[in-house]
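We modelled the chain as a single entity of 113 amino acids. Its sequence is:
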Amino acid sequence: EAASQAIEFLERLGVAFDRASQGSFLLGLEAAHSRRRIVHAGGDATGRELVRALAAAVRRTPSIAILEGAEVRRLFVEDGEITGVLVVGDGDAVSLPTGSVVLATGGIGGLFN
């Protein structure tokens, strides 16, 4: 049940899962599964499609600020909770109040094209 709810949520965010001509999911049989139960998006590019849709959803959310190329110098913590962040971008240090911080430092996705 949790998987189907997660897939529905991802579809609402814009993930284009692969579907058969009649509209049902194209389910793959992988690993040691006894039946077809794997959904894909864009064939073998499921990860890329998930990142595309999730990044677009983040960009559409006005309460989220994306600071690309910014260097985090300090997280401000009070009573065990994040209250702000000190970032440097373009040479200027800026202190930003916040209730949440996501440090997305990249990865090796797309290393092999």
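As a brief sanity check on the tokenised model: The radius of gyration is 19 Å. Residues 69 and 89 are 7 Å apart (CA to CA).
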